[in-house]
Design brief:
The chain is α+β, with helices and mostly antiparallel strands. It is about 20% helix and about 45% strand.
Length: about 240
């Protein structure tokens, strides 16, 4: 029946959690997506993973980074870990906030690879351009447009960008994305506008979802995201107090 978790599924969840905790090293640098009370979108932070008695653990943040008063403890957080180039995400409940640097949480579920494409997202600033899917067919030159901007974050399933003009929600666009790492290859995908909002005069924040993308191109984007994450996590997290 829908909504009922079978014993087999429950056992699979437990096994995946056990594998996660057996593979992660103590005080490993990770990326966490935290729910906040003043916005629907979750915010991403770097922190250290400190083991307790599984499936419980601590997340330790640099001084001043943790938005203590804004965290919504009634929603789950997502911890993303790089295991030698393979990203694994752990959905967890926020149990408590200790001081201004520590969150205590309990792991609930490991996100599978297909879901992981949607959850795994990194901060990355790189050039991006967008135009209507049918731009080449438009006879009216005045109606044609092409916007050039830059990304704010990136994943295998979409990205958040800034442009100097708005786009209509649900509009289908052709996107040329310059990968932020390596040879900085240009990837072309078809997507649609999920959200558009003005953040300052003549500057718009636009979320795009990828609808049509070759598997090879998507793997290049995910690989680039992993490389960006590894560079970010190599930066030493400055922590005053460890449990």
């Amino acid at each position: 029946m829908e909504g009922i978790i079978t014993e087999h599924e429950e056992g699979r969840h437990v096994k995946h959690l056990q594998e996660f905790f057996s593979n992660i090293t103590d005080k490993k640098a990770v990326r966490v997506t935290l729910p906040v009370m003043d916005r629907d979108e979750k915010e991403r932070y770097n922190c250290l993973f400190v083991s307790e008695r599984q499936p419980s653990f601590y997340l330790v943040f640099p001084p001043g980074d943790l938005p203590v008063t804004r965290i919504d403890q009634n929603r789950t957080c997502i911890v993303t870990v790089d295991f030698g180039g393979r990203a694994v995400s752990l959905i967890a409940d926020i149990d408590s906030i200790k001081g201004d640097q520590i969150i205590q949480a309990t792991g609930r579920e490991i996100v599978d690879h297909q879901q992981n494409r949607n959850y795994f997202r990194v901060d990355a600033v790189t050039p991006v351009a967008a135009e209507p899917v049918d731009a080449a067919l438009q006879e009216d030159a005045d109606a044609a447009w092409r916007l050039v901007g830059e990304t704010i974050d990136l994943s295998g399933s979409g990205m958040l960008c800034t442009f100097d003009a708005p786009m209509e929600v649900n509009q289908r666009v052709r996107v040329q994305l310059t990968l932020p790492t390596g040879a900085m290859d240009i990837i072309e995908v078809i997507g649609h506008v999920v959200r558009c909002r003005e953040i300052s005069e003549s500057l718009y924040q636009i979320a795009l979802h990828f609808d049509t993308i070759a598997a090879e191109e998507q793997d290049k984007i995910i690989g680039s995201c992993l490389e960006v994450q590894r560079k970010q996590l190599r930066m030493k997290v400055q922590i005053q107090h460890i449990l």
